Amino acid sequence: MSFSQQAVQAIHAAIEATRHSLITAEQVHPHVVLCGVKNAQKLLGFSRKLEEAGIKYRAFYEPDIDNEITAIATEPISGEQRSLFDKAQCLKLGEKNGS
Q1: Over the stretch 19-60, which tens digit does the pLDDT of each residue have?
Q2: Which helix (H) or strand (E) holds 36?
Q3: d(Cα 94, Cα 4) in Å, to the nearest integer?
Q4: CA distances (Å), origin 61, targets 19, 72, 78, 93, 94
Q5: Its pTM surpasses 0.90
Q6: How far apart are CA 69 and CA 87, in angstroms?
Q7: What residues pair up with 71 in beta bridges, in sequence order?
Q8: CA distances for 43 relative to 27, 38, 59, angstroms
């Protein structure tokens, strides 16, 4: 997926997170960081790590590609929770895939 396609999928996931009250108007505006993985399998693996760490998230499944998981958005995180993302690679304009 191109960078712009990945960004759109991330926005869909953020909308899902907001719809399910993971991000509310009462919270301080969260930072937004876009990270990429190589494929849906790695994304599912990362979502399991989030579950194990007790971090709430919402996934977005793209209807145009057979409802494949394409992005996740987490609740705002801080402190020790951030270490889960230490190995994540931030997306950069022009990239087609994360690592």
Answers
A1: 998 888 787 777 888 888 888 999 999 999 999 999 999 999
A2: strand 35-36
A3: 9
A4: 15, 9, 26, 23, 23
A5: no
A6: 20
A7: 60
A8: 26, 8, 10
